[in-house]
Fold each of these.
Amino acid sequence: MDKKSEHSIRRYRRWYATLLRLYSKPYHERFSEEMEQTFTDQLRERAADERGVVRCALWMFAETFMGIVRQNMSSTMMKNKRIVVIVFVVACILMAPFVAMQFTDEVTWSLLDFVAAGGLLLGAGLTYEFISRLAGNTAYKAAVAVAVATGLILVWINLAVGIIGSENNSANLMYFGVLQIGFIGAIIARLQPRGMARAMYATAIGQALAPVIALFMWNAQGVSAATFFGGAGVLGVFVLNTFFVAMWIASATLFHSARVKPKETALPG
């Protein structure tokens, strides 16, 4: 083998070594040296037989790159099994209205409906996964689950049919303010159990005040209760709000009982 071929092989090996760094660190540390040597040996065999070294090198680059993609995808899925499960569950839930649309005209979801529903479900699932990972305490995880589920149901109903009257009633914007109370409270609490309990109690108070404020808005507009509050009426709105208040309080109670602090603090400072 001439010097020119040997020089080319060394150059290809350097490039190949750079490519191997795209493997996950444990895999790279374990197999990279052996793979580099195999790569070099095959190129030298091709050069000794006076066959195309460049074609062989390109083929091995492509084959190794595909192996890197497969290995990294496999590694990511193994590390994030719960996230994969969440995505799978969301996809299964969205299949229900999609299948129903094929058999009945009563279900008429648009692409925007599917995107919104998927975003809500996926966001709720990932939020729970992110926050619950911070603590091994069962009460803390249960509190997060109740809070996330309550927020999801509140937004879903509000966007679908509205809580106060129809979904177009501007009074329903108050409920997004209720969620903001909980969100800001969680940031201030830095996800610590005691502070989270206070944030949920504050959210419950905001939820309870929403229909009271709606009464003042109704009187100010001078329209009928049926027009403003919809078919549920004033009593129905207050009953539904009581359900949400109870859920926020349940979450707060669980946070209060979660005396063991999370393993880490998600927010700096």
Amino acid sequence: MVESGEVTQVHYEGALHYCLTDALADTPKRIGRRHVRFLSPFDNLVINRKRLLELFGFNYQLECYVPEAKQRYGYFALPIFFGDEMVGRMDCKAVRKAGCLRVNNIWLEPETKIEDELIDALASALRGYQLALDCEQLELVKTQQKQLKARLESRL
């Protein structure tokens, strides 16, 4: 596939990876404003935990198989991807009967700076997620960093 040009070799931090050539052509040449994406634990970027740790230094475990008393981040915490960085995780639940997206907690990685660009992107992503789940309300229960909760609530 490399010989035919369908796949391109990509060298990144001393490791060899492969990418569909068409996907590289679709990649924006200039990156503007960074966005937040909430990733599924089964997303291709997340599913290979060893690669996720090597590429992003992000140690992730899906805790739905962990006894509740031993869960650190919640039953189904979603990794938070901001720009090109893994910046945290979010434990949330769509409470369908109440029409509410309940964000139980947001944890940011220790090196993540709580800056306006992140707050704006996170608020926008939360509103988008709320709408995608057909929830009328959004409830931010808590965040690990108090400063994050106050600043995020001011934009929601």
Amino acid sequence: MLELEAIGTHWWIELLEAEWTSELQALVTSEIHSFEDNYTRFRDESLLGQLNLHKCLADPPEELVQMLAYARDLQNETDGVFNISVGGELVRRGYGKTGQGSVSANFWNEVKLTPEEIRIPGEISLDLGGLGKGWLIDKLGRLLKAQNRPHYIINGGGDILVSSPEPVELALEHPYDQGEVIGTTRITHGALAVSSTMKRSWEKDGQRQHHIMDPRTGKPSESDIVSTYIRADTALVADTCATILLIAPELDAQLTRVHHLKTILLRHT
């Protein structure tokens, strides 16, 4: 099993019916760290940091253009619930040190997104936390298959992608007690993502803050959902929908229909 710390969480990757080689471990580890180095908003020298700092990035990697296009389309699909312009607001509330500005509902109208250049409005900062981990997990799955390792379990901080010859049973963690579970699910090919307001929380000015922002209000989500457990075909869809439904549970039926989800939404007791 390969284990490491990256993107602010613990990763473990298990190969099924295959062995790790030192070369494959190095390849996968490099892919994870390269993704973090490029797309973290916590460092000015990253590609995303440079974009947030200078509001312009020339010759962006195709991957970044694709991620931003996905975020734009998902914002439209969810009527603004998914919005990556939350970066500046998160910084203002004490989560990270890089970024400025506030959430904007219409910032895509002023974005230039081409293979040659990305430009964003001067008053916003982007944050890819709502989709980056899922994107990377799917990317690692494709990498392993390309290396003739078609069966695996990839776990990035509780977001999991499974490709297995037999169903794999996964525990659903209790939001208030990490030692307890609320149930299990079995996956052969697909993804599970869990999102909760109980993780990545902090205090500022005597008030509890958490990283799940509601872009419609510019404040931490006040939904009565404490945790979401989402199964989907890909880690990207599971990851993004887990965040969306934590903020706006009323979108459950719509997203389930469009993306073929299986969902559990756990409310505050």
Amino acid sequence: MRPFLLAYLVFITCYVAVRPVGKLYPKWFLAYQKEHHKNYTSVEERRAYKILKGKYEHIRATHLEGVTLKLHADSDRNLSYVNYHVMPGRRLRARRENTLLTSSHDIPSSWDWRSYTYVTPPLRQGTCGGCFAFAGIGHLEYWFKKKTGRLRALSVQEALDCSGPESDGCDGGLMEDVYKHSYGNPIGPVDFDQWTGGDSVCKHRHIHPYVRVMDYVSMSDEFGDPVEGHLARNIYYYGPIPVAVDSTSSTFEHYSSGVIRKNQCGTDVDHAVLAVGYTPDYWILKNSWGTSWGEKGYFRVARGQNACGINSYAAFAIDVQV
């Protein structure tokens, strides 16, 4: 064999051997890694691509009226292994009739608590199914500002760990579990107990500043309560309201922007979110899946349709001590 030909073959062989594996993947997958700062091992990269490929193709083939879809930071996980949308059956722990809330005629046609700086930025709960704690804390942060004039992030970790035995921590719970246990173990600022992404031990504290719920309301369609019918008034008078929604549809999982309508998601609720505002046409809700999901962590669902099961369950405080 001629020397120059042998050298050429060696060069080609070496080039192929050291060529970056990432170049074997399509551009959309490489762009996804860059956008979401993914640093996979080779095994993780293959697994992520296998998961994302089907989702990416589904999104490209799906055309929904008024809604756009997109891969987000947690899209590279199989939902069967992710616990971030777990909420148990609505077995109300304590209940009070919502007799004070009968009419919505004396409230503004549109409202958004973000415009009045009563809402902290969306967080990312990760694989822990503690959505009820995130939603409940978002509501109590409103009360903290209402009482003190200062918006301050409160401890979701404390709410998660100190709401048992009624709640199951990262395996799910209800917002009223947080309210009930805050009376004996008031919720403190986030710097008292930082979010770890999983279950931990309840840290007891009885020093200021803290939030203690003195009374709260639970509403459920299981008892015939008009959750959605009273939601606008409750938002206006009691701040952002934690509600339950169905997060299992592909529309919800890949939501990027727009208004989700009734026929675009289910009504079997499994996830807690925070209703921060409304217009005549839709509800504005804060999720806990990070800011890469949805409209920088928020989403909108059509009003008056029980879209995503929003008429199913709500729980909020009506008397708080700070």
